[in-house]
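Sequence of o-succinylbenzoate synthase (Rubrobacter radiotolerans).
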Amino acid sequence: MKVEVYRYALPLTAPLVLKGETLRQREGLLLRLTDGAEGWGEAAPLPGFSPETITQAEEQLVALDGAALADALLGVKPDPLAGLLPSVRFAVEVALAGVAAGRSGSSFTEALCGGSASATEVPVSALISTSAAETSREARRVRETGYRTVKLKLGGCPVERDAALVRKVVRELGTGVRLRLDPNRAWDFDEALRFAEFVRDLAFEYVEEPLRDAARLGELVRKSDLPVALDESLLDLEPEDLEDHRYAKAVVIKPTITGGVSRALRFARTARRLGMEAVISAAYESGLGTTALVALAGATGGGRVAAGLDTYSRLASDVLAPRPDLARPEMPVVLRAPAPDVELLRRVA
Ligand SMILES: O=C(O)CCC(=O)c1ccccc1C(=O)O
Ligand SMILES: [Mg+2]
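Predicted 3D structure, token representation.
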């Protein structure tokens, strides 16, 4: 199997502040595998969130062994993909699915997820991460655009202010729109308790990772009844470990960060068995990676669970040309593997 690696850098619509780091452009890697048919995948570690750097991902991609990848496609055991970095595993699995679908003429979703899509449309959650002053306008805009789920970023100000903002947004969104909250581990235990008290009368779906000390999440739920979702915590967990986190209402699964498609499917399956919602979510991938996430969300969500794919709208350009229409409340489930415009890329191997 022929292995080629490319690098991209895409401008953002505005600088992105992530856990203290400011991103001015989104950089990532694309993998092209060719063996009878062609398949593309994306490895774009996210600074501040991914355990690996883009340099480490590039080194691993460049060193991929085409013969071992051909074995992976045949289902050879032990898994030839074991030991790959999370973003690299995501790239390889998506590219192999493209090769498999191209060779057999089967659907990309089926090749990627081992089953057909359970829905024809995937609902998407809108992402609001603007300043507090602009949040109301944004909330109105996404409601009018037709989003039925909205995620609001919190943290970076006193919890009382965050709680007041949530109250305003709940009012702005009105009924029929579900709200997710995400302070990205900004609060200590007492702050989270205070937040829970302030928003006790408000309806929202869940708060992702409220606590700096994630080990106390279960205790927080017992004491406050706050509905919580796991996100960053998944980095330290195996799917089987979810058994010990039954207090969680949902798990937010980002295949770029947590280690690819098959692991995401295992997390999703285990979560559902335990009665938790499994939310497939993006990490500012290009249209190529995001398209694969639509397929994955279509295979896992039954058309019912909104996927967190609105990071795509923060990119000011794409590796796919023409740009796919991914920034909308419902996305048709992808049946064909995406392929980029090679002119927009820089070959590294
Ligand atoms: O989940 C979503 O709706 C969008 C994705 C998102 O918020 C996100 C994207 C990259 C890194 C971290 C996060 C997060 O959930 O904290
Ligand atoms: Mg989160």
